[in-house]
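Comment on this:
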Amino acid sequence: MIFLKSSAVDILDPAAAHEHLAAWKDRIDQVAATTAAMSARLQELRITARDRMAEVTVDSAGKLVELRLTEEIHRAAPDVVARTIMATLRTAQGQLASRTSEIINGTVGPNSATGQAIEATYSAAAGQGGPTSHGSATDQSHPSAPGRPPAVQPRRPRPPDDDDDYSVSVTEEG
């Protein structure tokens, strides 16, 4: 007899072995479907963060895909505008990391080895350690000193393109 997950399977009984393999295949199919759903949600993810001077949107890889500036930029020094844009970008990227974690936990679960590996990859690529507050992007909690440009965050690797186009645009706004 072979013992798998505290259940004995009599390998000499073809019906029992077939039933066990069918159940195992069903579990594998379910994991594959759940992982595919998680991947689709992560690839569609966009996060927008706002400040009084700027609104930035990042894609699922944390890359800037849209930047809108308000009239406030005309009343500020260029270096202040630049720092504000970069801080707002880091805020969006921090919110992306949080939302990514929520999606992973909501689909494959917090105890899933797959989910933990994917979350670690996203967190490492996003350079977690920066601000993740959902408040103003001009918070002075960032370690960059005033007057110096903020540190550049590493880019997250782009998810592989999928040949099948099941595109659904989802925008998460912060």
User: Anything to note?
Assistant: The longest helix spans residues 14-44. Residues 129-156, 161-171 have pLDDT under 50 and may be disordered. Residues 40 and 165 are 11 Å apart (CA to CA). Strands lie at 2-4, 7-9, 47-50, 54-58, 64-69, 172-173.
